[in-house]
Amino acid sequence: MRRREILSLGVAVGAVPAARLLAAEMDAFPHDMALDPAFVPKPAPGGAPQVLTRDIDRRTITAVFDRFIPGDELGPSASAAGCVEFLDAQLAGPFGQGATLYRAGPKAVGEDALMQKPQFIATPRERYETGLRALEAYARRTHQGSFADLKPEQQDAILTGMEKGEIELAPEVNTRAFFELMLANAREGYFADPLYGGNKDMAGWKMIGFPGARYDYRLYADRTGEDLGLEPVSLVPKA
Amino acid sequence: MSKTRKRIALGAGAAALIAAAGIGIWGHRALDTSRSAVADATVQLADVRSADRAAIRRGEYVMRAADCAACHNGTKGVFAGGYRFDTNFGTVLSSNITPDRKTGIGTMTERAFFNAVRHGQGSKGLLYPAMPYTAYARLTDRDMHDLWAYMSTVAPISNAVDENAGMMFPFNIRLALAGWDMLFFDPAPYRPTAGRSAEWERGRYLVDGGGHCSVCHSPRNMLGAEKQSRYLEGARIGFWHAPDLTANAHVGLGRDTDADIVEYLKTGGNRTAIAAGPMAEVVEHSLQYLSDADLTAMAIYLKSLPASNNPRPDPIGAEPPAMKRAALRYEVNCSACHGVRGEGMGDMVPPFAGNQALQSADASSLIQVMLVGGRAASTHHKPTGAGMPSFAWKMDDRQIAETLDYVRNSWGNAARPVREADVARMRKAASAATSLPAN
Fold first, then answer.
1. Is the ipTM of this complex over 0.85?
2. Shortest Cα distance from A84 to chain B (angstroms)?
3. How many inter-chain contacts (A to B, CB under 8 Å) are there?
């Protein structure tokens, strides 16, 4: 225990030491201002995939993501912006492990309705593994081809069916929830800080005019109705 | 609390050899302790029972002014010692100065106490000049008597400290300090200067005596002794730069009024500066307890010092690409607290515009604060103790150097460029985080 802690403790319980240093030590706050390693952002590691290790899984999710956000004059496609790398890094970390989710059993009948949201014992990582395999099997079963090789209209038809709950990929897959999961992760990859693997060159931010990880906007708060032309700034910029 | 480890160069090396020459060293003036004869040599501190409440109160004030608590402090309690000083010659620990008989100074007599505090001659031998007896030598007999009375009221704490076990040979031999003392130690009492006011004299007494300001603010020579020719002109101390305290208008106190200086010493900050790092500790432990009259006296004395020769360099213009990059980086990372025009935030966040210490040639303190963050002093008047976060994880060495160049050369400021290599060196020395890969 450190001296200041001892002193503040002494004051708190009224056990005042004989030669107490008056009220000098009011500062019970931490003096170490270095960022706790637990709070340092974890960049996407780059390199070989950690979770989406099967080529076919990567082809499938790439095709799905690029139907969600196709490349056009507004910006690059989801995969070109790094969303697959983003997803792989996230699935390899606490998100993939469902670290913040309650996953202990039992899962009762009717629980999804009760919680107003699908509930899972499986982790997001496991849901991707089973979901992508089921999607690929579904495409082969219904279109005699790999999902990634289907025409965009065919892909859209399958994705639309998943979204509307008109298709069941496999009995063990909550198809609609899997669609929602992929859509949410594609968006996150496109708009999260480039540190995390997606949003390459801040393409997502440039597309929507988001100025990035700036701390303060007092310089601009009064300039309403004006194109401020602010270049986006990432969390750890190159410049 | 992450205590700053003060690195004080202890120049015992060559001095040891000089001492070994043995030219009647015990007769040398630097080692003459006859001044201590005014103190009692019979009663041990642990047996002292002073009933003189006024003397004890004055003694506490002397203790505050001399900032004994800052260093004679560790994990075992106030005055129990164990505070580390990392020097170029090894590590020395502060001693236990509680009246504990076995591990403290309980068996010291007042005369032995005088010898230790004013002459650097302790119960275990000569003291290392990490203990500023070089400054405490100026303390008056009365202040010493009062300090003794106060120390007798301190609760004994058992904490055995082997002060010099971490010193390298031959610096672990205390007798080596005799040579150092002979070369550099002036044991003379405080001498008034003709024609000066009582206030000025009191200020100088506080600055040079108990305050021991020059220990950090004066540069030292190769042997760790203060360079008298550059008295209070600013110096590097460990990871920090203790700024110029002369009337230099660019990096010193030249543009501060007496009231500015008093406010800084009393509260930890004023309109141009906020104490952080080792100076925050000095304000918290010591200066905030001094009377306004004494702080004003210190200000008057400091303001009377002739301006140092630290010149104002030509500022770096706003045009170079590095400065433009840094301008955006400042807006994005710094302006929320330090202001879009470097104006700071009242009593909490120091301004940059017109901040003299910020423009010191030595940018160590600034690099340090960028890398590991910092805390403003927390005082009775300004208790917030606002924090500066570390940017080590977010900026690489070049970006930190550029950012400092920007704040040191904007809004009318002018300072020498910060070298990227210095940031890299300090990042390593301070074990600061490596910056994340940039995107």
1. no
2. 17
3. 124
Cβ-proximal residues to A158 (8 Å cutoff; 6+ apart), any chain: A135, A138, A139, A142, A147, A150, A167
Q: CB A34 to CB B69 under 8 A?
A: no
Query: Cα-Cα-Cα-Cα dihedral of A232, A183, A130, A62, to 10°?
Result: -60
Asked if pLDDT for residue B238 goes beyond 90, the answer is no
Q: Is the peptide bond before B170 cis (omega within 30 degrees of 0)?
A: yes
Residue in the block written with tokens 């003060």: B6
Give the C-alpha distances (Å, rounded to integers) separating B297 from B196, B252, B362.
12, 18, 28
Tell if the CB–CB gap between A233 and B328 is shorter than 8 Å.
yes
Q: CB atoms < 10 A from the CB of A121, how many?
A: 13
Distance from CA of B303 to the nearest CA of A (A): 28
What are the CB-based long-range contacts (under 8 Å, 24+) for B274-277?
B274/B347, B274/B348, B274/B349, B274/B350, B274/B376, B274/B377, B275/B376, B275/B377, B276/B365, B276/B369, B276/B374, B276/B375, B276/B376, B276/B377, B276/B388, B277/B4, B277/B239, B277/B240, B277/B365, B277/B368, B277/B369, B277/B374
Q: Cα angle vertex B280, ends B279, B284, to 5°?
A: 115
Contact B103, B109 (CB under 8 A): no
By C-alpha distance, which of B19, B209, B174, B3 is closest to B92? Answer: B174
| pTM for this predicted structure | 0.88
**Residue B85 forms beta bridges with which residues?**
B6, B92
* pLDDT tens figures, A93-135: 999 999 999 998 888 889 899 989 999 999 999 999 999 999 9
Which residue from B397, B393, B406 is spatially nearest to B436, judged by alpha carbons? B393
Task: For residues A221 and B378, give the distance between their C-alpha atoms in angstroms, rounded to a whole number.
Answer: 33
Contact B168, B89 (CB under 8 A): yes
Task: Nearest by CB to B75, from A2, A233, A237: name it.
Answer: A2
* Sequence-ordered list of residues with C-beta below 8 angstroms from that of B75, at least 6 positions apart, any chain: A1, A2, A3, B82
Closest residue of chain B to A219, computed from CA coordinates: B340
HEC profile of chain A: CCHHHHHHHHHHHCCCCCCCCCCCCCCCCCCCCCCCHHHCCCCCCCCCCCCCCCHHHHHHHHHHHHHHCCCECCECCCCCCCHHHHHHHHHCCCCCCCCCCCCCCCCCCCHHHHHCCCCCCCCHHHHHHHHHHHHHHHHHHHHCCCHHHCCHHHHHHHHHHHHHCCCCCCCCCCHHHHHHHHHHHHHHHHHCCHHHCCCHHHHHHHHHCCCECCCCCCCCCCCCCCCCCCCCECCCCCC
Q: The tokens of B87 are what?
A: 């020097």
Instruction: Determine the distance in angstroms separating the CA of B407 from the nearest CA of chain A, rounded to an integer.
Output: 17
User: pLDDT 10s digit of each residue in chain A, 239 long?
Assistant: 344 433 333 333 333 333 334 444 444 566 788 888 889 999 999 999 999 999 999 999 999 999 999 999 999 999 999 999 999 999 999 999 999 999 988 888 898 999 899 999 999 999 999 999 999 999 999 999 999 999 999 999 999 999 999 999 999 999 999 999 999 999 999 999 999 999 999 999 999 999 999 988 888 999 999 999 899 999 999 98
* B423 neighbors B367 (Cβ within 8 angstroms): yes
Contact B378 A26 (CB under 8 A): yes
